[in-house]
Design goal:
By secondary structure, this protein is mainly α. The chain is built from 14 helices and 4 strands. The relative contact order is 0.17.
Length: 343
């Protein structure tokens, strides 16, 4: 057990144990829960939420949030499908969708950095605008994407086990995890989330970093929407409606603080796996859909509550360390004064 704690950390280990217990419970209730086809479906579901979570995690670490991520994912899929139907090759349509997602991120950054509206508030309003525009553009009907080569983006399986969307998500998590832990840009994100004023005094431009993070989040959300469209063969105006909430829940469950400055990609993956397994398990047991919504909301409240108490504990620990540092400083000064008097 001690060796596992050294490998994963105590918080991650607890999350892994809970996830394994949930999987075991649903396997007992339904022996087909861990069948190969169902596991592939789980990986596909994980990949969609996980791709959105990657961008959301960086924003949360920086002390920001984008509640419009789900709508941006849906809009990105719609834009890609419409471009394909207009005769645009699907790789170009993918790029168009990513650029569209980046523009959505710029809109969010404008309201946060220039108009100075809290990200939580402005993206909540923008989410409603995007959801309405999606229904206007699509006439509230799914937009088919008639391109078999495009469908392979969502249906290709590597080694007969791993869906391509899952592999893309894992790659993104590894790359962004390295960016967070091994680069100056990643350390800057933590500094901004921990203390934005101190980061500014150190010569960092928080607005520039936050703009980059919102643009990045919009692109990743659009990518998730495009992959979902390829897997479903159409872009539905109701798809990805809970994408942002699921991403926030997964990130906070994985140890990223909603207040910023804490967390990493490793915990995010376990958090995504937990909420996806939980949701799929409820479906497999035949629980009505409205009870699934209640359960998902309860998980989010639980995750935020844990984050709140962890944040208070971190604050008390920092205060104790500061008091201890000052006491040691005063004691050393007193010792120096005594030596001077003796001499």
């Amino acid at each position: 057990m001690k060796r596992l704690k050294r490998i994963f950390g105590s918080n991650y280990l607890a999350l892994i144990v809970v996830t394994a217990a949930v999987m075991l419970l649903f396997f007992i209730l339904n022996n087909n829960f861990l069948a190969l086809d169902n596991v592939k479906n789980l990986m596909n579901a994980v990949s969609f939420t996980g791709t959105i979570t990657v961008g959301m995690a960086l924003l949360l670490i920086a002390g920001e949030v984008d509640l419009a991520s789900g709508a941006e994912a849906c809009f990105g899929g719609v834009v890609c499908a419409m471009a394909i139907n207009a005769g645009v090759p699907w790789p170009v349509a993918l790029i168009i969708a990513l650029v569209f997602g980046a523009c959505c991120g710029l809109v969010n950054a404008f309201f946060v950095n220039v108009v100075h509206i809290m990200g939580f508030i402005c993206t909540l309003g923008i989410m409603g605008i995007y959801n309405g525009l999606i229904r206007v553009v699509t006439d509230n009907h799914p937009i088919p994407a008639y391109e078999p080569s495009f469908w392979k983006l969502g249906s290709t399986t590597l080694f007969g086990i791993f869906p391509l969307p899952f592999v893309i998500m894992i790659t993104l998590m590894v790359v962004y995890g390295l960016i967070l832990t091994r680069t100056n840009f990643g350390r800057t994100i933590y500094m901004i989330g921990g203390n934005r004023r101190a980061a500014r005094l150190c010569g960092i431009n928080p607005q520039r970093i936050i703009t980059a993070l919102y643009v990045n989040n919009g692109m990743l959300a659009a990518l998730a929407g495009v992959i979902l469209t390829a897997r479903m063969h159409n872009a539905s105006p109701g798809a990805a409606s809970t994408g942002a909430i699921d991403a926030i829940t997964a990130a906070v469950l994985g140890g990223i603080s909603f207040l910023g400055g804490v967390g990493g990609m490793g915990g995010c993956f376990i958090g995504i796996l937990l909420i996806t397994v939980f949701s799929a398990g409820l479906t497999a047991t035949g629980l009505p859909s409205y009870w699934q919504i209640v359960a998902q909301g309860a998980i989010l409240v639980f995750a935020l509550s844990v984050d709140f108490f962890n944040s208070k504990a971190r604050k008390r620990r920092l205060e104790r360390d500061e008091i201890k540092r000052r006491r040691l400083h005063f004691e050393s000064r007193a010792t120096e004064n005594q030596h001077r008097e003796t001499d």
